[in-house]
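Dear Dr. H.,

I hope your travels went smoothly. While you were away I took the liberty of generating a structure for the chain from your last submission, since the lab meeting agenda had it listed for discussion. I wanted you to have the full record in hand beforehand rather than looking at slides cold. The sequence, exactly as received, is reproduced here:
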Amino acid sequence: MDKRVLLIGSQKSFMVSAIAKGLENAGYTVIKCEFTKEDIIAVEDKPEMYVLYLDDIDPASPERNGIEPLKYLDEAIDRERFFLYEVGTTDELEYASKFISKIKITERFLRPLDVNELSEQLDMLVQSNALGEEQKKKILVVDDDGTMLRMIKTWLSVKYRVYMASSGTIALNFLQSNTVDLVLLDYMMPQMDGPHVLVEIRKSETLKDLPVMFLTSKSDKESVISVAALRPEKYLLKTMPKAKLISNIDAFFSDKK
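The corresponding predicted structure, in token form, is as follows:
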């Protein structure tokens, strides 16, 4: 991945210019375009990283409500597979989420923006992709909630190679012919729940030592104790902030080294 960024926002905005300058000082080539569907489409040889600066949106004004470009980005991200970073106020980010699903956003930043923080996040993505897909640690996420699956994949794909399974049966079948470095396992699933899946993993001669973490909404003490004998690496809650979840996974792989 090259260090090119598409910066979407009003070219008259002082902050858009400041972000562009800050990223250029950090070694990025910045391609700028207005926050319109036509201008975004017109960009040739688009980079893999987009920064969307939300500013001066007026939901009551057809010219300034941003609906067209937001809907376009929501559709294009599935087709073109770019990483999208959003910058805005709380209200602006929430407005944008009506048209761009939150699970498709790589990261969101509140204004006023610390450009160094943004460039650090971009650097992390560039460095991770420099490894190549085969060199990345592989994680299988198992959850019957499709929205949760896609969100976790979006969060983790910056650093890791992520696979998804929507049931315990699909996960076990996948593991019979594919090697991963970690499984993130939901607790409550229909037909075969997380503890049952982990029992089957521990019974398998080839999978018994596979690292597994629970990622669940079940926080009661009884649930945690009931799976302790199955030796999960960690018991993580879905309610934890994104940064905390990622830091737990990063720490696990760092300790393994």
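Two observations you may find useful: The CA atoms of residues 61 and 207 lie 57 Å apart. Residues 115-130 form the longest helix (16 residues).

With kind regards,
E. W.
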